[in-house]
Amino acid sequence: MIKIINLTTGISSKWLETGKGEMFAGEPDREIEEIVNLYRQLNPFFKGYFKRQLLEIINYENSTKTLKEE
Length: 70
Description:
Elements: H1 2-9, H2 13-18, H3 30-40, H4 44-69
């Protein structure tokens, strides 16, 4: 969500996360912009599916980081 807010408003991701630094960031991340544009083309069912898949990937990535740290 932070990346989407950053992309659509230009507000810094760091500022949104921590409240520190400059409120407005420089250039938006072009890869995120492309993903958001593709997302906007999806119907509501696939938007939900996309979000669930993204959360699964993040959860998997976080769980593998935890295992590597142990």
